[in-house]
Amino acid sequence: MATGHTDPQRRERIIAATLDLIAEEGIARVSHRRIAQRADVPLGSMTYHFSGMDQLLREAFGRFIDHIVAVFDTHLEGIADQDRAREAVADLVHALSEGSRRDLVLTQELYTLAARSPSYRELTHTWMRHSRVRLEAHFDPDTARQLDALIEGLTLHRALDREPHDRALTLEAVTRITTRGGPQAT
């Protein structure tokens, strides 16, 4: 490993270690010392690269948000019609709920911080704005807002449920929200 300030990856390792530690042990167990140990950097690197824990957490969660936005992009880019967009949203819910437990925990840790601190709420607002922009490529703004909340809720419920619902039910929920006037009576 490079020493001193010649290690160009040190800052990135600190951010990655911060997210890993939060995901594994929770935000309450995060400290400069524990992060430095996890990142295999001298403790002094923490204050050299970050003005404090607040700056480090903001940057780490900012990276996490970039990752989740990229997941949205993977599922929603290049779709030509609304039926395929509905399918893509259902796929997205299932990818998020069946995917990384790390992502699920980091999401909840960020939401908890945002619920307690208005300054972290700005990060969640940024995340929602990015998500909605992706959804608005396929749906009107009000529908995109509803879908964003649906994605969050269904993802959490599927991830934590002992018997998660299947994709058909997810697609039905997405279709109900994205169809003007709701489902047609039979």
Automatic annotation (TrEMBL):
UniProt superkingdom: Bacteria
Pfam families registered for this protein in UniProt: TetR_C_31 (PF17940), TetR_N (PF00440)
Keyword Transit peptide attributed: no
Domain HTH tetR-type intervals: 8-68
Segments of the chain annotated as binding DNA: 31-50
Record-linked SUPFAM superfamilies: Homeodomain-like, Tetracyclin repressor-like, C-terminal domain
Record InterPro entries: Homeodomain-like_sf, HTH_TetR, Tet_transcr_reg_TetR-rel_C_sf, TetR_C_31
A molecular-function term among this protein's GO annotations: DNA binding
Keywords: DNA-binding, Transcription, Transcription regulation
Name assigned to this protein: TetR family transcriptional regulator
Native organism: Streptomyces tagetis
